[in-house]
Write a structure and sequence with these properties.
With about 180 residues, this protein is mainly alpha-helical. It has nine helices and no strands. The protein has helices spanning about 10-30, 35-40, 45-50, 55-75, 80-95, 95-105, 110-130, 140-155, 160-175. Helix 1 crosses helix 2, helix 2 crosses helix 3 (about 45-50) and helix 4 (about 55-75) packs parallel to helix 7. The longest helix has 21 residues, at about 10-30.
Length: about 180
């Protein structure tokens, strides 16, 4: 695929099928997952997978970009507290490619996608501060660190609904009363 060129409708569908399958396969098998298994689950030939994603790293980067784009979209539909709750619940409920990427040792560079997420969370923070729900001294890097830490805790700790709610209550109280 030529960088920047628009994809035909069938190529867009194939790309989406590959990414859907890859998310499931990598979450299930970790870094040992094969692109052949991704192709099989997507119902496509391996050549189609490689046309879209020449390497496994390219495929992992695309998964990460898509997950981050979904988080940005989710942030646009919620306030800061609801966004925190949503993301932590997702992390606790399922292992995703994000967990795979965090421990894979693969150098995936997605600065634009991470920047978009940071911008979206920054807007939520500003809205919460303007509404008086978050102390004005709280800064975006702190909020991003809290979000990442909560997600890692929920993901690796297998937090149940009660622990998620209690932990978020403590964090939200801290954000309000800094």
């Amino acid at each position: 695929m030529i960088e920047g060129s628009p994809l035909r409708a069938d190529a867009q569908r194939n790309r989406a099928r590959i990414l859907d399958a890859a998310e499931t396969v990598f979450a299930e098998f970790g870094t040992r997952a094969s692109t052949e298994e991704v192709a099989r689950r997507a119902g496509l030939a391996i050549g189609t997978v490689f046309r879209h994603f020449p390497t496994k790293d390219d495929l992992l980067a695309a998964i990460m970009k898509r997950l981050l784009a979904q988080l940005v979209e989710d942030a646009g539909e919620r306030d800061l507290f609801a966004f925190f709750g949503h993301v932590v619940a997702q992390a606790a409920a399922k292992k995703t490619a994000v967990d795979l990427l965090a421990g894979s040792g693969i150098d995936i560079r997605v600065p634009d996608a991470v920047g978009h997420l940071s911008d979206a969370v920054g807007r939520l923070l500003t809205q919460a501060q303007d509404a008086g729900a978050v102390d004005a001294s709280v800064r975006l890097p702190e909020v991003m660190a809290l979000l990442a830490s909560l997600c890692q805790g929920a993901l690796h700790g297998g937090w149940d609904d009660h622990l998620q709610a209690r932990t978020l209550t403590v964090v939200f109280a801290g954000l309000k009363g800094c």
